[in-house]
Amino acid sequence: MKHRIVIIGILTLLILSCNSKNKSDLIRNYENKSSEINEVKNYFDKTIPENFKVSIRYKSSNIIKLEIYEKLNDSSENELLFRDYNVDFSDYKEKPQKNSEKKYYGKTNSLEVVKKKLNWNNEIFKELYEKLESAECVGISNWKPTEIEYGYNGAGVYSYQIFEKNLNEQEIEKYNDGCNNIFYKDNIVLSYTGGAFGMQCFENY
């Protein structure tokens, strides 16, 4: 079993390395696909009900990583509702869940409950995938700011942080550390999040 896990890890690393991106790719894609990236953001914003935070990353057209938080009543706190790193939304099998696992996987392990709360169906998952594909991106989260994931470098992920307004001087200084965030222009910050292995900052930091 241990050897199998090691082999899977090595194969995953090799696959990610074959499609490895860099900062130049991140910038080039924004210049070429800015309208498509903004279209993804606008579509996603319209589909998320108030009081929900949703992060979704597509591994394929129907396999996703999905993480959802729900704001508690009369509170600014968000509670983990659902988390699954390998969801097949077209053929989801609900997994047994112990009470002790709710801290890590959320209050429910039912995708149907999640879809009902969000008022989503499989067509929304499919349309979001198509819009991300058109933008040559892999994921999106409606954090503040919105984060749109572009691609991988090893286990790390490049993304765009899209603010609602252009950044002022103080905000530019905050989001321009050169390691994980680089102010690009206007309301756009380039971001890199390191994984469990590999580089932890933008290249040449």
Notes on the structure:
- The chain has 205 residues and is an alpha+beta fold.
- It contains 6 helices and 8 strands.
- Helix 2 packs antiparallel against helix 5 (122-134).
- 24% of the residues are buried.
- Residues 5-11 have low confidence and may be disordered.
Helicity, as a percent range: 25-40%
H/E element order: HHEEEHHHEEEHEE
Secondary-structure class: alpha+beta
Rg, alpha carbons: 18 Å
Note the gap between the termini: 38 Å
* Beta-strand fraction estimate: 25-35%
Largest sheet: 8 strands, antiparallel
Widest sheet, order of strands: 3-2-1-4-5-6-8-7
Spans of at least 5 consecutive residues whose pLDDT stays below 50 are: 5-11
Give the averaged pLDDT, no decimals: 90
Gross geometry:
globular
Number of distinct helices: 6
Secondary structure tally: strands: 8
Quick take:
The chain has 205 residues and is an alpha+beta fold. The chain has helices at 2-18, 23-47, 102-105, 111-118, 122-134, 169-174, and strands at 52-58, 63-71, 78-88, 139-141, 146-153, 156-162, 181-185, 188-193.
Please give the structural blueprint.
Blueprint (H helix, E strand, L loop, with lengths): L1 H17 L4 H25 L4 E7 L4 E9 L6 E11 L13 H4 L5 H8 L3 H13 L4 E3 L4 E8 L2 E7 L6 H6 L6 E5 L2 E6 L12
Antiparallel strand pairs: 1-2, 1-4, 2-3, 4-5, 5-6, 6-8, 7-8
Helix pairs in contact: 2-5
